[in-house]
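Thread: "does anyone have the structure for this chain?"

Original post by V.I.:
We have the sequence but no experimental structure in hand. Need at least a predicted one for the grant figures.
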Amino acid sequence: MSAEATNPEARPEALPELRRRGRTRLDLRRLGRAALLGPTPRDRLPDAIGHVAEAHRAHHPDADLSLLRRAYLLAETSHRGQMRKSGEPYITHPLAVTLILAELGAETTTLTASLLHDTVEDTDVTLDQVREEFGDEVCFIVDGVTKVEKIDYGAAAEPETFRKMLVATGNDVRVMSIKLADRLHNMRTLGVMRPEKQARIAKVTRDVLIPLAERLGVQALKTELEDLVFAILHPEEYEHTRALIAAHAGERDPLPAIADSVRSVLRDAGIAAEVVVRPRHFVSVHRISLKRGELRGSDFGRLLVLVGENADCYAVLGELHTCFTPVISEFKDFIATPKFNLYQSLHTAFATSEGPTTQVAEVIVRTRQMHRVAEAGVVALGNPYTAPPSAEPIAAADCDEERVDPTRPGWLSRLLDWQQSAPDPDTFWDVLRSELAQDREITVFRADGGTLGLPAGASCIDAAYAQYGEAAHGCIGARVNGRLTSLSSRLSDGDTVQLLIAHDASSGPTADWLDHAKTPAARIAVSSWLEAHPDGARPADAAPRAPLSVIGLRSGGGNAVADLPDATVRLAGCCTPVPPDAVEGFVVRGGAVTVHRVHCATVAQMRAVGRTPIAVHWRATADCRVTLLAESFGRPHLLADLTEAIAREGVEVVSATVEPPVEQRVRHSYTLQLPDATGLPALMRAMRDVPGVYDVSRA
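Reply from O.Q.:
Generated one for you, C-alpha cells below.
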C-alpha cells in the first residue's frame, strides 16, 4: 500500500473519480455474493479470501494459509445474516481490514486475528472458542481488539475508550495495527452516516488515531486517513487541492524526465538503484501550497531511490550532490538519527533545468528494508515477542511479567505510565492529545548508566518524575553533564542527568514547576501534589535567619612565598590556593601580596587593568589553607557531623559559615588549615560521605 498517492477515496459521491492509482481494491458487492454462497470445499480457499491470500503470499511466500481458511470460515459463519449500514454483508468488513494488513505485509497471526476481530463482540463466538481453535496468541489479540471496539463517540466515552486502547496497544502493538486498519475501512465507507457523525468520527481520527499511526510508523494508513479526514473536515480546501492536482494532471510532469536523469547518473556511477516517482497525497500537496504559494510541476511528487545497503544510500547522496545543484537546507539524515517511529531515510533536494524553467526535485533515498518499515511501521516487523503471550492482559507496571517488545518505544511506555494516574477523563483526553502532538524524542542518560526517553524540550523535572515517580516530589536540584543546574533546565539529546532527591517529608514541588514540566506524568503528579497541599509543604520563617559563622584566629599566607623582599603574603579567599596549585601574586594596598590561583577570575581582572603579577612559589613545608564549599540537604545535627568528619582527618577549622536553608538545601563554607596538602582529596571524600551531603568543592 502506497503511503503517498494522489487520489484518495474521500467522499461517497467522489468514489468513481478518486480511485487510488496502483491499489488493489476489494469489490465489496462481488465479495458479498461470494460470502453468501457458504463454505467451499476443504481443499481450497474460499473465493472471497483470494485477494487476502494473494497479498499475503506476496510478502510471505511460504505462509501456511490453512489458518486463514479456518478463520475465514468461522468469521463468515458467525457473521452470516449480519449487514453493514452500507447494505453489504458484514463479512466484507473483516475481509477488507485483513486485506489492508496483508498489503502492508502483516504476518499470518495478525491476519487471522483481523478476520476474527469482530466475532467475539458481535456474534456468539467466545474467547474460549477462539483460543481452542487458534491458540493463545490469536485469542490475546482478538481480546485486545474487542476491548476497544464499539466506540461511543460521545464526549464522555471517548477518553475511557482510548485509555483502553492504549493499554491494549501496550500489551501487543498488533492490536493497534488491526484497529487502525479497521478505522481506515470505516472511514472509506463513512458516507452512509449523518454529516454530524462523520465530522465527530473524523475529529477523533485526526486527534488520536492519525498521531498513533504516525507514532507506530504506519505511514501507509496514516496518509490515507489524513486525506479522508481532510475531505470531511475541510471540504473547501480539499476541493481546491483536488482542482490543483487535476490541473497538474493535464500538464507535462517534469518528474519522469528528472527521474531518467537520476537513473543515468547512478548507472554511470555503478550504483544499482530503483528510481520511482512518488505522487504526493492530498494533505501533502495542501501543505506545500501553503508553504510555497504557486506550485511548480515538480511540487506534486517526489523521487524515491531504493538501494540494497545503507552505504549505497550515502553513495547515491554523493552522486546527486555532485551532478546536480543541491538545496542544502532540505538535507536531513534520518539514517544516522532515526525518527522515534522507526523511520529511516535520507532526504535531499536539488535544482535542475527541465524545459524552460528550473525545477526543484525532492528526493528520498532508502534501502528496500527501510522502505518496508517506512510504509508499514510495526506491521512490517512481524511477531515482535519472544514467547507467545498469555490470554490474560499483562499489567504495564508489572515489569517482571511484561513481555519483551522491541517495538514498544519510549512514548508508548510514558503513555502507559501516566494514563492510570490521570485524575479525570477530561485531563486524560487533553494530555493525550498534547503528548501525541510531540514530534521528536530525546534520550538522556541516568547517573546509574540507564536511559530515559523524553519528548524534545523536556526539563530536569520531567526526568525526575520519569525516573523516580512520586518520590520526585523531593527533588531539589540536578547535575547535567556533571554541572549543578536548576530543575527548570531543558535537557538535550545525549545529556547525562543526576537528580538530587531530599528524603524529607517537608519537601515538595512548587507551582512554577508546572511552567517547566512537559510530560503528562510530571504535570499530573505536580498538580495532584499541589491540590493535596494547598498551603505548601514548608512553613514560612518568621524572619530571615542570618548566616551562622564560626571564626578562627589563624590567617596569613600559609607556606606561599612571593619574589618580593619583606612583603606580607596573603592567600586570596576567593580561590584559596593550596600546593601544588599554579599561583600568581599581585601587590595590593599596604604593600601586601595577595596570592591567587592562575585560573582565578581575579587574575584576569588584575591583568586587564595593567597590574603586574608577582612570581610566587610554595615552601617545602606541606601545610596549607583551603576553603571548601559543602552543599547538602537540611537535617538536624548536620553541622556537628561535618565538623566531626573534618576533625577525624586532623584538619583545623579556621572559619565556617552556614547559610539559611533554601528549599531544603544548605550551603556550608569552611576555611581549613591542612597539615599536608596531599590530604585534601581524602578530606573532601570524608565530607561527601556525611549523610545528606551531595557535593563538596573548592571555593
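V.I.: this helps a lot. The longest strand covers residues 357-367.
O.Q.: and The two ends are 65 Å apart (CA to CA).
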